[in-house]
Amino acid sequence: MVPDHTAVIPRHVAIVMDGNGRWANKRFLPRAVGHEQGVEALVRTVRACVQRGIPYLTVFAFSSENWRRPEDEVSKLMGLVLVAVSRYVERLAQEGVRIRIVGDREAVSEKVRASWHKAETATQHNSRLTLSVAFNYGGRWDIVQACQRALADGVPPAELTEARLGSYLALSHAPDPDLFIRTGGELRISNFLLWQAAYSELYFTDCLWPDFGDAELDAAIADFARRERRFGGVEPAASSISQGT
Question: For residue 57, what pLDDT is reported?
């Protein structure tokens, strides 16, 4: 039975899916196996978010810095994209999931871009959950490309407000993340959603991504429920409230 978190459910969850390689290494398996299991964990998490009524999920699948990894590993990751699209898109579409790819598409092959287009087109009318997959994405790249697009549109400097610039960001279709999760034990955000995560609640877990599932998601949501989100403001003192001052 899914726990009832309706009173404190985050509207948007962002996840750095870290630990695939270490999961494989601990089992003396090729790193590619860890990435394959990571896709399974993603599908589990998408379904768990749907069950809990979370309308937006954004995951960090491939950063703009990941090109520095061994060529063989990068090649296998690209192949995994194609496999994942063919294997899971239809099922996710039937569950009301909309898929959107965010990131710089220029560096990937035409074959990969075509698979992304297929996934986005097949799910474009769904609204139960929007799954944004950040691929060849970096937070600094996102801010720079947003500025470039605003300049190209001729936006005057005096009119370039936070809201106006935000409309040019890659994740402009979603609200800012409420809950930012990173698996794998590292305590950093690694250039992910630098602008959007300004007031996100950060949650770090030692759980390696392929082992992530319902229980880990519920633990993160429970921790989120205990947070006081003031967005730079100050909560009134209890004594002042009780005295009506």
Answer: 97
pLDDT at 156: 96
Task: Write out the catalytic residue numbers.
Answer: 18, 66
CA-wise closest residue to 121 among 157, 149, 85: 85
For 86-131, the pLDDT digits (tens) are: 889 999 999 999 999 999 988 888 988 999 999 999 999 999 999 9
Q: How far apart are CA 13 and CA 178, in angstroms?
A: 6
Whole-prediction pTM: 0.88
Does 147 have pLDDT greater than 70? yes
